[in-house]
Amino acid sequence: MRTRRSIAYVALLAVALTAPSAMAATKRKPAPKPKPVCHLITDVANDSGPNTNGFAGTPAQASVYDQSLDITGGDIASDGKIVTAVIRVAKLTMPDNSAPTGRHWQLTLQDGNTAMAFNAYDGPAGHFASPGTAVFDTTKNEIRISAPASQLPASVKVGTILSDFNLTSQLAVVSPESAAQYVGPATIPPGATEDYASAPATLKYKVGTPSCVALGK
Q1: Could you write out the DSSP letters of every residue in 9-35?
Q2: Pick from 66, 68, 107: which is nearest to 87 by CA?
Q3: pLDDT tens-digit series, residues 61-108
Q4: Measured between alpha carbons, how far is 183 from 188 in angstroms, rounded to an integer?
Q5: Cα–Cα separations (whole angstroms), residue 83 to 27, 39, 108
Q6: Is 105 within 8 Å of 136 (Cβ atoms)?
Q7: N or C terminus: which one in the chain shows less Cβ crowding within 10 Å?
Q8: Could you tell me the maximum CA-CA distance found in the chain, to the nearest angstrom?
Q9: Pairing state of beta strands 71-78 and 82-89?
Q10: In this structure, are residues 214 and 141 in contact, taking their beta carbons and an 8 Å threshold?
């Protein structure tokens, strides 16, 4: 009897020792995290100026070329609470002696039904953003516009699909004498379009997707 009991004990012990290994072998690996989205919109450099308008991608004329209005790309990012639009240029300078009346940058997009626009202005009238606030980053050569999702004309929440991305840069027609009357980019008369860039119609961003853009900064 002792022999049989000993054999049974050894068998049970072997099962107990191998069970965790078997469970570990069958345990599913966690799904890989999605890669951050970055550089949704890209554009070649040195293609801006009022005589080229950026549409044809032709070299800009040196006499009208402004590197701070030469769009090189952009991004959009959101967690459903904050939305940040990024406009990248060849070289952002503050102030800009080539644009004494001011500069205006814009990123537009849609949620499928509603068009939305992020605007930033810099010039004799001051610094403005609509909606939200703007950061003019001369190190990264970026204009970043951030706003609460609640300020947008459409419902931007996690899972919302954004598309139809377009970027525009313009000289603003504002004289230093009349600058005080303007209160934001929506009221500033636009000048000649300096550059324009758009993403392919098939390119989309799903709100909540990780991005290389730091929200609200």
Answers
A1: HHHHHHHHHHHHHHHHHHPPPPPPPPP
A2: 107
A3: 434 678 999 999 999 999 999 999 999 999 999 888 878 778 889 999
A4: 8
A5: 38, 16, 13
A6: no
A7: N
A8: 109
A9: antiparallel
A10: no
